[in-house]
Amino acid sequence: MTHLVVLGLDIGRELQEGHAAVFLLARSATVDRVVDALKPLGPTIIQSNLTKEREEELVQALQG
């Protein structure tokens, strides 16, 4: 399996077979509401406030 390393996190290592990773980049959202909306799905949520530079790094990594 190819592992995607984003911002120092090895996403592939964290995933169980048959599961998926979802990245949400929100510039203006109430974080609590977003987390509450996702909770019924039983996710592992990793959240961070990124600097503009780290945000650009994440976007580039995800665009491959």
TrEMBL record:
Record-linked Pfam families: DUF1269
Name of this protein: Putative membrane protein
Organism in which the protein naturally occurs: Kribbella shirazensis
